Amino acid sequence: MGILKQIKPTKEEELFVNKNAEKFLCKIKKKLKNAKAVIGGSFAKNTWLSGNYDVDIFVKFNYRMYKDKDISRELGKILGNFKKKILHGSRDYFQINQGDISFEIVPVLDVKNYKQALNVTDISPLHSEFVKKHSNKKMQDEIRIAKQFLKANDLYGAESYIRGFSGYLTELLIINYKTFQNMLKNASKWPDSIVIDIKKHYKNPEDALGRINWAKQGPLLMIDPVQKNRNVAAALSREKFDAFKKLVSQYVKNPDEAYFTKKDFELSELKDYTILEISPKNGKRDVVGAKLLKLFEFIKSKITEEGFNLIDSGWRFDKKTYFWYKVENEELELTKKHYGPLLIKKMHLKTFKEKWENYKVYKEKDRVYILIERKFPRFKNFLKNLTKEKIIKESLKKIRIL
User: Fold this and answer.
1) What is d(CA 120, CA 117) in angstroms, rounded to the nearest whole number?
2) C-alpha angle 76-81-82 in degrees, rounded to nearest 5
3) Global pTM?
4) Phi, psi of 211 (to 5 degrees)
5) Are 374 and 331 a contacting pair, CB within 8 Å?
6) Could you tell me if 316 and 265 are in contact, meaning their C-beta atoms sit under 8 angstroms apart?
7) Is 98 strand, coil or helix?
8) Which of 85, 145, 196, 387 has the fewest CB atoms within 10 Å, i.e. the most exposed one?
9) pLDDT of the chain along its 402 residues, tens only?
10) Residue among 282, 360, 372, 276 nearest 325 (CA)
11) Beta bridge partner(s), residue 275
12) d(CA 257, CA 4)
């Protein structure tokens, strides 16, 4: 596949990253006692993409000695002299930039199996070991191709604002199906929900579904080969699962390397939409993204509540952030129904009539309503007013309608 030449790190890149990573590791190791530092993530598994110099390092603390201690705090002391940034997760971890390379140093307990783990991150080194053990160089290249396919089509990433395919999930899919093409061939035939159990931890799919927490289930149940009670695909949304299946079907019918190139975002394609340009506040990308998604959904709900028929909507979080909404009815009636209590709620009904004594009360089935003047019958005026609400203004640097 020609795309591999574009995404596979060159020998020069490998040499550059390995040399600098080893140099950085040596500095950390000198400060360690009863702990060891190892490279993790896609670099350890040799599944990283060209141009991506974000390196994960796990500092594995002796289980017996540190299981009752705050190992994030311990790691902070060890990294005392480094210029670092604290990142918040299930455990606090650290980011240190050295030239073009960004190191993320994660504290974990040195566990032998998932039963010892006291935190989800404790399992991560075991994931790296599994992928390294069950993939050869050819398979690692197949993983790279799969990652690029997902990245180019906005399906990659398990962050809460993306809810797509994580790196580990992508690696396991290729390990299960052996090649990218075989994965696509099978994925194009996936039913609405599917169970994949690489290590055959369970007798059958029904057994797996019965043993995994229902809240962690979804359209794809990928049994973690190193932790049989965990669904690796728990973050994957139905929307992204369906989008992936649709994309795969299109690609299988008409393979084209254009599917591996991220398409430029063009505002001109949204000429029938009302577009909001957003300037979010600074912060860690996944935290900012989660807040933006929450705000996007909030605006959607307000549009629907007001009575506008929302046909389509979407958002993009990149160098510039945009929300866009398309409604069927750009202008509503000048009045809207304001509903009161059920007819059988006599006391509430009396209070409602007293409050709205200057309005005519109408009956609709089993409840009452009045007609009140709509403040903003035009969609753009409604949206403009909505953006002035405190909850929106305080969560962003700036927001404006294009």
Assistant:
1) 7
2) 80
3) 0.84
4) -100, -20
5) no
6) yes
7) strand
8) 85
9) 689 999 999 999 999 999 999 999 999 998 888 899 999 999 999 999 999 999 999 999 999 999 999 999 999 999 988 888 888 888 999 999 988 899 999 999 999 999 898 998 999 999 999 999 999 999 999 999 999 999 999 999 988 889 999 999 999 999 999 999 999 999 999 999 999 999 999 988 888 888 887 777 889 999 999 999 999 999 999 999 999 999 999 999 999 999 999 888 888 888 889 999 999 988 878 888 889 999 999 999 999 988 888 999 999 988 789 999 999 888 888 888 888 888 888 889 889 888 998 899 888 888 998 898 888 899 999 999 999 888 888 888 888 888
10) 276
11) 324
12) 11
Radius of gyration of the chain (CA): 26
Cβ atoms of 176 and 233 closer than 8 Å: no
Residue carrying the six token digits 């790196």: 167
Q: Are strands 85-87 and 396-401 parallel, antiparallel or unpaired?
A: unpaired
Kindly report the length of the chain. 402
**CA terminus-to-terminus distance, the chain:** 42
**Sheet containing 93-98: order of strands:** 35-40, 54-61, 101-109, 93-98, 85-87
CA torsion through residues 292, 147, 7, 144, sign: positive
Edge-first strand order for the sheet with 194-196 is: 194-196, 220-224, 227-231
Q: Which residues contact 226 (CB under 8 A, 6 or more apart)?
A: 113, 114, 123, 126, 127, 129, 130
Indicate the DSSP class of residue 165: B
Q: 314 is written with which tokens?
A: 């979407």
Q: How far apart are CA 210 and CA 2, in angstroms?
A: 43
How many angstroms separate the CA atoms of 203 and 197, rounded?
10
Helix axes 167-177, 137-152, angle to 10 degrees: 130
- How far is residue 330's CA from residue 320's CA, in Å, rounded to a whole number? 26
Yes or no: say if 122 and 108 are a contact pair by the CB < 8 Å rule.
Answer: yes
Distances (CA, A) of 105 to 42, 49, 172, 254: 14, 20, 24, 42
φ/ψ of residue 300, rounded to 5: -55, -45
- Block residue for tokens 């600098």: 20
Residue type, 389: E
Here the tokens at position 346 are 């006599």
* Tokens at 208, concatenated: 């797996």
